[in-house]
Amino acid sequence: MSPLTLEDQVIVALRRITRAIDLHSRGLMQEINLTAPQLASLQTIARLQPITVGALAKSIHLSQATLTGILSRLESRNLVTRGRRGQDKRTVVVELTEEGQAMIKNAPSLLQDRFRRELLMLQQWEQTQMLSTLQRIASMMDAENIDASPVLSAGDVSTSSEHDTEYLNDNPVTVHDPQ
Question: Is there a contact between 71 and 82 (Cβ–Cβ < 8 Å)?
C-alpha cells in the first residue's frame, strides 16, 4: 500500500474538518433547535444591536437573501424583531427579543468545545498563526466570498445557492489522471 500524496492528505484533513463542522451543527440543532448560522446571527445581533440587515449580513459573511430566511425563522420563534427606523424607511433594523437574549445566554459555542478549549490554551502567537493559516486556506481555495451558511447548516447538501453555482462555474473541478 503506497503512502498518501500531499494532495490526498490535504483532502482527508479538509474532509475531516468539514465533517466535524457538520456534526457540531447537527448537535446544535438537536440541543437548542438552532442551526449554526441562526446562532451566529443571534450572537452578532446581541453584540451589535440595533443592526441593519445589510451590516449583519456582512458581519457574518452571509448573503442578504440567506440572512432574510434566517431572520424570518428567528422572528417566527420570537427571538428577534425587525423594524424600520429613521428617515430612510427602506432600512430594516434587527434586535433581539427577551427570548432571544435568554437563548444567547444559554447557548453553546459555535466552535466545538474541545477545539475551543485547546485553541484557548495555545499561546497568543499560536492562536494568531492558526487563524492566519485558516484564512490562507480559504484564500487559496478562492473561498473568501462564498456564503458561509451551507457549510454551517445541517441538512441537505444537495441544494445549492445561486452563489454556489456561480462559484462552481468560475472554478471548474479538474480531475487529474495519475498516469
Answer: yes
Strands across the sheet containing 51-52: 51-52, 92-96, 80-84
Amino acid type, 80: V
In this prediction, the residues of the chain whose per-residue pLDDT falls under 70 are 1, 145-179
* Class of the CATH domain delimited by 6-168: mainly alpha
Residue with cell 425563522: 73
pTM to 2 decimal places: 0.71
